[in-house]
Design brief:
This protein is mostly helical. It has 2 helices and no strands. The protein has a domain at 11-49. Helix content is 34%, strand content 0%. The longest helix is centred in the N-terminal third of the chain and has 14 residues, at 18-31. The mean pLDDT is 82.
Amino acid sequence: MSISKVTHMEKTQVYLRKEELAALRKASARTGRSVAELVRDAVRKAVLKPQTTGPVAIWDGEPKRRSVDHDSVHDEP
């Protein structure tokens, strides 16, 4: 059994310069995605991107060295 998810969309018009539309069509042909899908994805990434709430870290505690010394980790045995 297949369950379909329907997403409501509204139609709109956008005016683009020739070179912008040509670039979108070229990207569409290259990726196999529709021009509309590329535009929706660009809007999500540029306008609807999630807001960052603070610094992101991959460690716990104080850093052992400054970021400019990041290659020094290879100096240790």
